[in-house]
Design goal:
The complex is a heterodimer of chains A (about 325) and B (about 300). By secondary structure, chain A is mainly α. Chain A contains 15 helices and no strands. In chain A, helix 5 runs parallel beside helix 9 and helix 14 runs antiparallel to helix 15. The longest helix of chain A is centred in the first third of the chain and has 39 residues. Chain B is α/β, with parallel strands linked by helices and about 300 residues long. Chain B has a domain of about 200 residues: Rossmann fold. In chain B, about 30% of the residues lie in helices and about 25% in strands. In chain B, helix 8 links the parallel strand 7 and strand 8. The longest helix of chain B is centred in the C-terminal third of the chain and has 14 residues. Classes of the chains: A mainly alpha (about 325), B alpha/beta (about 300). At the A-B interface, helix 10 and helix 11 of A face helix 3, helix 4 and helix 7 of B.
């Protein structure tokens, strides 16, 4: 005796109907459509922002050309440029690189490779993680209290009143320090234990193991992290406003970097902030400076992504 | 070669005090008491001067957990000693206590003594780096450095301050590891590009490049195919002329084929591994003294 089910399986026409006649998975389709819509909205907002910036800043940037990059701050928009902002930002990057990288990488190597797993080190790890999420204005207050007020006579003597480039640079370095520690620690953790065992197994000391193997293999990840932290520092505005970057350009010549470091300064984001507060005549300059900032940040991030994909090791 | 019971391993005419190699020094629980056929465990005699490792009531802990319980055994020179036993019985932990590799594990510590040529490896003032130079290790998964084949082999001698002809040392180490013919034309290419079996032989070359006294092998063939496994076993047979080898394996056939002595570990109710018996390999596999050993080698458990 043949059951209806057996008939349905053996009858080619019925099989064809069943396999092709379904209503389809409309829930999945609806969900996918919803997600797609959300993506469009998100990208749309970004595109709109970018469009506004390009439309308003593009003409000014094109009209001014190279002049915009080589001009100092000025009271008339036609002659004001971002030269001091760019130089100031690059200066800050140098401080970040000189202060935050050795400190951060060193701290991460100690925490990952040397420190025992105690309550103290676990607490420190948690604190570092939380510090990375602290709003940057708080670092600005820290910098104001320590580098500008308490150490002002040393770091920014005289007319600078403590609001020196060094104070700003140190504030930025402290700001990115937790990020440097975390990304370095992650890069170190990605080097498998078996590699360390291999080195120890042939009689290497801990230092030889770290120097010859762990650090070199973690280097691409560490570089990626440091570049991203540079980008973060490059775009930060709030702490710089607190520690005094916005008061204006360099009050000394470009020729003496040391003197410059003790003097007043500006940075690219604070230049934008300064111009944005001025009455409408500076609008073109403001948007043009935003384009410059965005291009630099995108470039730096692209470099970081490229380096990660190109050099990072898969274990 | 095979080692017979009650015969000293040393064949010179010096005074050969016979030493009972093994004793089950812990309290057997009731189940084990029933399972065990009396107190007979394999007893091998090794002349004192042939003893490389002399473990005296060694216990290994990870934090509060005791992974290895009161193991006493002796490892003779220029022999292959296999450590077998079911998963989780502490074979690797035991092996890693032979060169203080467990120092790297957070919370690991030992009780008892590991005498290496009479020196307690865990005594104050013993430098674990020097210990590992003398007692090399090959790991379960081949772990070449992501560097050139040459640099893999040369790293150990370099950190040891080797001042001789490095090219010659690298060649000689690769030859001894039976890898030279396959890699001599590509010494500068990365070690990680080799096949699994070649990688493991590279790791053996790397271990012998520092001219150790002992080579510890922690399941060196578990990631390899049967042909690569046989090559490693042949290699071990050649290497024992110059080195003392201790190998952990979960593969009983491998222990039977490749080792001179076999120690059988299992774990008790408290999950701590203990030594059931240790004897000449052919005795363990043909006339085990202990019911647990017999059950294990005949595949009834483990």
């Amino acid at each position: 005796m043949t059951t209806p089910r057996a008939q349905a399986i053996s009858n080619a026409e019925l099989v064809r109907q069943r396999l092709t006649g379904g209503a389809g998975d409309w829930r999945s389709a609806a969900f996918a459509a919803l997600l797609g819509l959300l993506l469009v909205v998100t990208l749309g907002v970004l595109a709109w922002l970018l469009g506004v910036v390009l439309v308003n800043g593009g003409p000014t940037l094109l009209a001014r050309g190279l002049d915009f990059f080589t001009s100092n701050l000025a009271s008339r928009p036609e002659s004001a440029g971002v030269a001091q902002g760019i130089v100031g930002s690059l200066y800050l990057m140098v401080f970040v690189a000189l202060v935050a990288f050795p400190l951060g990488i060193g701290a991460a190597v100690y925490l990952e490779e040397y420190a025992h797993d105690t309550l103290l080190t676990r607490t420190i790890n948690t604190v570092v993680r939380n510090l990375a999420g602290v709003p940057s204005i708080v670092y600005g207050l820290l910098g104001l209290a320590i580098f500008v007020v308490a150490l002002g006579d040393v770091l920014g003597p005289g007319r600078t009143q403590g609001r020196s480039l060094i104070a700003g640079g140190l504030t930025m370095a402290i700001l990115v320090l937790p990020i440097v520690i975390i990304t370095t620690a992650e890069a170190l953790r990605a080097v498998p234990l078996t590699i360390r065992e291999a080195a120890f197994g042939v009689g290497a000391t801990r230092w030889e193991t770290i120097r010859s193997h762990v650090l070199p293999y973690a280097a691409p990840g560490i570089f990626t992290g440091t570049i991203l932290s540079m980008a973060r520092a490059f775009g930060e505005t709030a702490p710089l406003i607190l520690v005094g970057a916005v008061v204006g350009g360099f009050n000394v010549s470009y020729d003496n970097p040391i003197e410059q470091a003790y003097g007043r300064y500006t940075a690219l984001p604070t230049t934008i902030y300064d111009w944005a507060r001025k009455p409408g005549t500076f609008d073109g300059n403001t948007y043009a400076a935003i384009i410059v900032l965005l291009v630099v940040l995108l470039g730096v991030n692209a470099l970081a992504i490229f380096m990660r994909n190109r050099f990072e090791r898969r274990w | 070669m095979t080692v017979e019971t009650e015969r000293p391993l040393a064949r010179d005419d010096q005074e050969q005090r016979t030493i009972r190699l093994v004793s089950v020094g812990h309290e057997l629980d009731e189940a084990e008491r029933i399972a065990s056929s009396g107190d007979a465990v394999g007893a091998i005699s090794i002349a004192d001067e042939q003893v490389v490792f002399d473990l005296q009531s060694l216990s290994c802990y990870y934090g509060a957990f005791r992974a290895v319980k009161e193991i006493s055994l002796r490892v003779p020179r220029n022999q292959i000693t296999a450590i077998i036993g079911p998963s989780g019985c502490g074979k690797s932990t035991l092996l890693r206590s032979f060169n203080r590799m467990n120092d790297l594990v957070e919370g690991a510590r030992v009780d008892g003594r590991v005498l290496y040529h009479g020196v307690d490896l865990y005594a104050d003032g013993v430098d674990p780096v020097e210990v590992r130079r003398r007692i090399g290790m090959v790991f379960q998964k081949p772990n070449p450095f992501p560097k050139s084949i040459y640099d893999n082999v040369a790293f150990g001698p370099r950190v040891a301050g080797f001042r001789g002809d490095m090219n010659e040392l690298v060649e000689q180490s690769l030859r001894r590891a039976a890898l030279w013919d396959e890699v001599k034309d590509k010494l500068r290419s990365p070690g990680t590009a080799l096949s699994g079996g070649q990688q493991q032989r590279l790791c053996i070359a790397r271990a012998i490049a520092v001219e150790p006294d002992v080579i510890l092998m922690d399941e060196p063939c578990s990631a390899l195919d049967p042909i690569a496994t046989l090559r490693i076993e042949e290699l071990m047979h050649q290497l024992k002329e110059n080195y003392t080898i201790v190998i952990v394996t979960h593969n009983m056939q491998q222990a039977a084929r490749a080792s001179d002595l076999t120690a059988f570990l299992t774990m008790g109710e408290d999950r701590a591994g203990y030594l059931v018996e240790m004897a000449a390999t052919d005795q363990i596999f043909t006339r085990p003294q202990h019911r647990l050993t017999e059950d294990y080698i005949t595949g009834r458990f483990g």
